[in-house]
Amino acid sequence: MTQPDPIRWLDSSRGRLAWREDGPGDRIPPAPALLLLQRFRGTLDDWDPAFVQALAARRRVIRFDSAGIGRSGGEVPETVEGMAALAAELVDRLGLPQVDVLGWSLGGIVAQQLALDFPDHVRRLIVAGSSPGGVPDGPQPHPKVREVMTRGANDEADFLFLFHPETETAVAKGRASLRRISGQAGRGPLTSAASALAQMKAIAAWGGVRDRLPNLVQPALVANGAHDVMLPAYRSYVLSQEAPHAKLILYPDAGHGFLFQEIEDFAFQIDRFLA
Fold it and tell me: Which residues, 6 or more positions from 214, have their beta carbon under 8 angstroms from its beta carbon?
């Protein structure tokens, strides 16, 4: 007996969007769904399935390919503000009065923009491995990051460099996560080079939201690995200090991919935060 395709489709102002939902359905009392916003070039298949499973044990989890990404049609929005507006449109078209939001990396940038531009859509905010923008001081990304992240295709060595520090434990957990991600059946297409370039242009044009952080009304959980070579943990610290209702968690032997490395603890922290 064939299993139903978990991918669903939704028409938006920017084209047809692919999305899926995980979770226990009606077995628990209703609670806001948790909307996941993905990293640069990432698709809905690039979330570690073990992480999604941990999140979905007690709640609905919704992930999607934004316009021009993965299975979705249309073109990548020209701005981060446009990406946030499309996420808000998705929430509306799914008939959800409000969601909790977890954004990772670029998704964390979009999540902050979404919470500020559409505050009624977001109950609680989780920002993983990201930045509010406008943080010129402090540690800077590793000099190799731009070269590695913009390659036409990334191999295991690239992802380990970008997401995990060079310790035996972190590398072992990173490899295990990559195997889980790549081993999923029915994976959709990778993000095209043209769409990746459009994302980069939107990121480069983004002015940041640091000056708006005092207006962030939602409780926020900010987290990162202490050894993030892409978006240094200092930027998470700044966000946590300047947003009025924020808590910071840093994982010591972890980097940008800490959420797939420390699944059990981070899922526990998320459960407690959203409870």
Answer: 242, 243, 244
**pLDDT per position as a tens digit, 130-177:** 999 999 999 999 999 999 999 989 999 999 999 999 999 999 999 999
Residue 92 belongs to domain spanning: 8-274
Read off the pLDDT of each residue in 201-206 and give the average, rounded to a whole number: 98
**Amino acid 25: pLDDT:** 63
**Chain-centroid distance, C-alpha 48:** 11
* 246/124 Cα distance (integer angstroms): 10
Predicted confidence (pLDDT) per residue in 15-31, tens digit: 999 999 999 865 555 68
Among the listed ranges 26-35, 105-114, 209-218, 246-255, which one has the minimum average pLDDT value? 26-35
126: CATH:
3.40.50.1820
Q: Give me the DSSP letters along the chain.
A: -PPPP--EEEEETTEEEEEEEES-GGGS----EEEEE--TT--GGGS-HHHHHHHTTSS-EEEEPPTTSTT--S---SSHHHHHHHHHHHHHHTT-S-EEEEEETHHHHHHHHHHHH-GGGEEEEEEES---S---SS----TTHHHHHTSSS--HHHHHHHHS-SSHHHHHHHHHHHHHHHT-TT--PPPPHHHHHHHHHHHHH---SGGGGGG--S-EEEEEETT-SSS-HHHHHHHHHHSTTEEEEEETT--TTHHHHSHHHHHHHHHHHH-
Residue 20 maps to a domain = yes
- Name the percent of the chain lying above pLDDT 70: 96
